[in-house]
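Q: Could you write out the predicted structure for this multi-component system? I'm mainly interested in how the pieces pack against one another.
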Amino acid sequence: DSGVTQTPKHLITATGQRVTLRCSPRSGDLSVYWYQQSLDQGLQFLIQYYNGEERAKGNILERFSAQQFPDLHSELNLSSLELGDSALYFCASSVGGTGDWNEKLFFGSGTQLSVL
Amino acid sequence: AQSVTQLGSHVSVSEGALVLLRCNYSSSVPPYLFWYVQYPNQGLQLLLKYTTGATLVKGINGFEAEFKKSETSFHLTKPSAHMSDAAEYFCAVSFSGGYNKLIFGAGTRLAVHP
């Protein structure tokens, strides 16, 4: 168990809908990262938050947004969903997030999103 | 453009045989290199990493990898495969600091047969 908790584990929804994925980082970790794993794009970094502030953006669509709350949990909001958004969405956390490779990155088990 | 390539989306070995999973990167500057493993229904777990120092890196579960700058490679090996090694393996690189800069390969699914 990595200590990173993601809910729900599975989500089935229809095109055009909006969903929220939730992530609780490991105790003491200030950084949260969101990744998307799809068959055609592979594993891609979406966005990082550090202690409530957006730290870095990757290949995140404008229809997607995220935030990190004062208790450090994070939510990824996906709206106007399309078939191509079907993927496994991972959250990961680390202590800092400042680029120190001595830190480890811990992954949650993911949320499988199916858009029908 | 900087990229990472894993040769072979599927690799199958017999239990006890050598495991070799290939990873090459494309860059004019040496990167930071990682191997992650993903077991079914689980998140990624770090096997090993190369950031500085010795180019032969030992990781968990008997895996090791060697950074060869001249070949721009970071292949993952294990002398003797175990059934529990069956999983998907991802090579990842970063050309600057931070996990938000990680570029993942497409993954190699390892099957281990009795």
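A: Regarding packing and overall arrangement: The mean pLDDT of chain B is 92.
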